[in-house]
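Incident log, structure service

09:12 report received: a user says their structure output differs between two submissions of the same chain.
09:20 pulled the input from the user's history:
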Amino acid sequence: MIDFSRFELANGLRVVVHEDKSTPMIAVNILYNVGARDESPDKTGFAHLFEHLMFGGSANIPNFDEPIQMAGGENNAFTNNDITNFYNILPAENIETAFWLESDRMLSLNFSKESLEVQRKVVLEEFKETCLNQPYGDVWHHISEMAYKVHPYQWPTIGKVPKHVEDATLEDVKNFFYKYYRPNNAILVVSGNTTVEIIKALSAKWFGQIPKGDDVGAKNIPQEPKQQQLVQRTKYAKVPIDSLYLAFHIPGRVDEDYYATDLLSDVLSNGASARLYRRLLKEKRLFSQIDAYITGNIDPGLLIIEGKPAEGVSLEQARAIIWEELEELKSELIPENELLKYKNKVESTLVFSEISILNKAINLAFFELLGDIDLINREKEIYQEITVADIQRLAQSIFVPENCSELYYKAEAVEAEV
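09:34 re-ran on a clean worker, output below:
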């Protein structure tokens, strides 16, 4: 059970506090309600660019990392389709350093051509390293584009193409910042050795005077219509071996079926005894690698099955073998003890995650964003209530060809030297 208190400043900043006197440390986490899905189709990669820009100096602080390190702490950030999240961990007695740093970059970034150019180069280099020059690096570009035709999940967090970040102007950057990185579009969570009274005073001191931004309001994000037919694509590239990807549309994070879908993916591939790994890799040796997982997006996401066939097994054969396993899940109820095993795995993972003050801070911020922060204490119960009939029902609705996008990623044939 995670206890917490909540309050809101006049400028709209939501604040959540979790007191934990068992640790000498404190986690200060700020979630901004902006991710890749908030970008324009012709200006993608901006949320990821801002993850870097936010460390490039702000109104009164030229170097973000040095003060936090001098205070005995560390910091980092991540961006995904839905959110941008910044976090700091430091000794509790130095908590005000984190408030000073986070409030200053929320107040105003150091908007300069020099800072933009430095971070632009970093992001473009990352695009090249992870997407263009790495084997299978553009897989998510293909899967996103195949599975989504309307929703902005149709591009990955890093962006559609490098050119969008290359062409970003200082004016573009300022507009994006003052629209989304405002107190009324943010959630501050503090977890660790502190009190609500201390955090109320620090929040008012450091964040209370920051002007609120325009009301972003309900996000007018176009919802993806139901997929009506199988989508297939073959990609040839310089990769070591062929690889297969099956992407199925699944419920979003706030849908009541999300948790059962998560367990369904675990039944397929969570550990050495999971069906795909045990049957297809370990016993039949038809794959050298196989995995299944869900994206966990706020809006309806994807369940991905990816596999690299063993030598002598074609992608077409591999696809047929996977579909046989999926059809079995649709036609037969899984044993109760099999489902119980994955429920217990999930519960142990959730309990273990509650040990870390940082995990608690990040999770509290996310559930607050979802609109039901109490859900953080009900998840274990929700998982335990899922039945084998729920697993079969979801398998029957999800694992149909017209709900699938299939990517064949093939190694280019190497011409023999004469």
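09:41 both user submissions now match this output. Likely a transient worker issue. Closing.
09:42 reviewer note: The mean pLDDT is 94. The two ends are 69 Å apart (CA to CA).
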